[in-house]
Amino acid sequence: MKKLIENISNIWKVEELRKRLLITFSLILVFRIGSFIVLPGVDSSKLGTDGADAGTIEGLLGLLSGGGFTNASFLALGIMPYISASIIMQLMGMAVPAVQKMQQEGESGRKRINNYTRILTIIICAVQAPGYLSLYVAGKNAIPVEFINSPLWWTQSVLVLVAGAMFAVWLGERITDKGVGNGISLLITVGIIARLPQSFVAETAQHSFLIVIIEVVVFMLIVMATVLIVQGVRKIPMNYAKRVAGARGGAVDAQGARSYLPIKVNASGVMPIIFAQAIMTVPVMFIEKQFGIFGFWYNLVLFLLIIVFTYFYTAIMINPKKMADDMKRNGGFIPGVRPGDETASYIDELVSKITLPGSVFLAIIAIIPAIAVQFGVGDGFALFFGGTSLLIMVGVVLDTLQQIESYLLNRHYDGLMEGTKIRGRRTQGEMSGM
Q1: Pick from 299, 307, 309, 304: which is nearest to 368 by CA?
Q2: DSSP characters for 159-205?
Q3: What's the confidence (pLDDT) of residue 253?
Q4: Angle of CA points 28, 369, 288, to nearest 5°
Q5: 19-33, 266-280, 392-406 — which is least confidently predicted?
Q6: Contact 181, 175 (CB under 8 A)
Q7: How many angstroms from the chain centroid is the CA of residue 120?
Q8: 56-to-59, 131, 284, 290, 379 alpha-carbon distances in Å
Q9: Please, are residues 236 and 403 in contact by the beta-carbon 8 Å criterion?
Q10: Fewer CB within 10 Å: N-end or C-end of the chain?
Q11: CA–CA distance, 261 with 320 (Å, rounded to integer)
Q12: What is the tens place of the pLDDT at every residue in 202-218?
């Protein structure tokens, strides 16, 4: 513990890291305050509490927006429209030649793709905002009678929601550029974590102390398992011909340098769950009583969709042919496997094998909240036992800690994760071939 406290104190000794952390905290605070600023003209007293919506699709969206959705805040749409736009652009990169060309143009192409992503985000927000106002806010009778039939109020509210979503995107991008971690992911994570204390207090009020302790232990075990899967990689041994010319350009040392090709067990990350839940949102909105988020059929279909999307997104993320060509070009080879097509087939077969358990794990994580509810866990607290919220929290926290550790190591300080197996740097075995 003393070593950990000393390592944490080292953070403030690195001036650049200290400034970045202060900027990150400041922008996150702005986002959190914005989540409680209600849309003009909306009667917030009619919206109820987050706990009342815990077992509904509105509660899930409220969790991912940090409460802005259920508060009818001007940040109600949150970051999700931008994420949806980013996913669409990634898919277009597979099918649209013009987008593929931009992806190959380096920094200039990336900027153009970002601009198109923002434009697409505005379009998505413009479609989602009226639906949100009519289905959720008006459904809660939170719109005063004098505004129900007012085109001016509807127009201004839609514009405010669109502007709020773009403001959230701007905050996320500023955190990424000037702060620490991925800003978009951090905003979602902070919003999720902000709901945890409230859900935990509600849970302690419903159950005995012993039951709550058991639930917390189970929650920690699930988190540990998630960390192991998120960090898990299958290391493929590789050799590189290490050529050292003699003083007169004579002898060549043909001794190979050992390295590894790491293939993540969960290469697709949280995207399959986001894909599947985005699709499942549509039927739930119309037939929620028969198809609720804790219902059998909802979770069965969700389970199957996540497995399908995991294979689909892994195919986008990992290109065995390109990896084999890069290895061959750099003089690398897998022992016992011929370079070229045979190497590509070997990598493809290996990826297929490790993707199956990875996809099943993701699917199980996604339906754990429904299982937890069956064991008596409250709806609000159950959402933290799995699904998108848990994977986002674990992934973002690990990524942010690794970035902080990199700053500390570059300044010759011990990292936050010194002495653990979760590190932001490669092991000596992985670096030996570099």
Answers
A1: 299
A2: HHHHHHHHHHHHHHHHHHHHSSS-HHHHHHHHHHHHHHHHHHHHHHH
A3: 41
A4: 95
A5: 266-280
A6: yes
A7: 20
A8: 5, 17, 9, 12, 9
A9: no
A10: N
A11: 12
A12: 888 888 888 889 988 98
Report the b/e string of 202-216 with b at 16+ CB within 10 A.
bbeeebeeeebeebe
The answer to whether 377 and 385 have CB atoms below 8 angstroms apart is yes
Beta bridge partner(s), residue 240:
257, 332
Lowest mean pLDDT among 98-102, 156-160, 287-291, 298-302: 287-291
Task: List alpha helices for 375-386, DSSP H.
Answer: 379-382
**Distance from C-alpha of 326 to C-alpha of 50, rounded to nearest angstrom:** 51
Task: Read off the tokens for 316.
Answer: 């986008």
Q: Where in the chain is the domain with CATH 1.10.3370.10?
A: 196-434
Three-state SS string over 312-353 comes to: HHHHHHCCHHHHHHHHHHCCEECCCCCCCHHHHHHHHHHHHH
Question: What are the tens digits of pLDDT across the range 361-403?
Answer: 888 888 888 888 888 888 778 878 777 778 778 878 887 887 8
List the one residue out of 160, 308, 327 whose CA is nearest residue 256. Answer: 327
pTM of the predicted model, to two decimals? 0.76
From CA 83, how far away is CA 158, in angstroms rounded? 19
Q: Which residues neighbour 307 within 8 Å (Cβ) at sequence distance 6 or greater?
A: 272, 359, 360, 362, 363
Amino acid identity of residue 366, one-letter, is A
Between 77-91, 185-199, 269-283, 387-401, the lowest mean confidence (pLDDT) is in 269-283
User: Which CA distances in Å does 76 have to 9, 22, 60, 139, 362?
Assistant: 37, 25, 13, 15, 27
Q: Quick one: which of 234, 282, 279 has its CA closest to 131?
A: 282
Tokens representing 101 are: 């060309």
User: Considering all CA atoms of the chain, what is the largest pairwise distance in Å, rounded to the nearest integer?
Assistant: 92
Q: What are phi and psi of 259, to 5 degrees?
A: -145, 180
Beta-bridge partner residues of 233? 264
The domain at 196-434 falls in which architecture? Orthogonal Bundle (1.10)
Q: Give the span between the Cα atoms of 232 and 230, in whole angstroms.
A: 6
- Confidence at 315, pLDDT banded by 50, 70, 90: confident
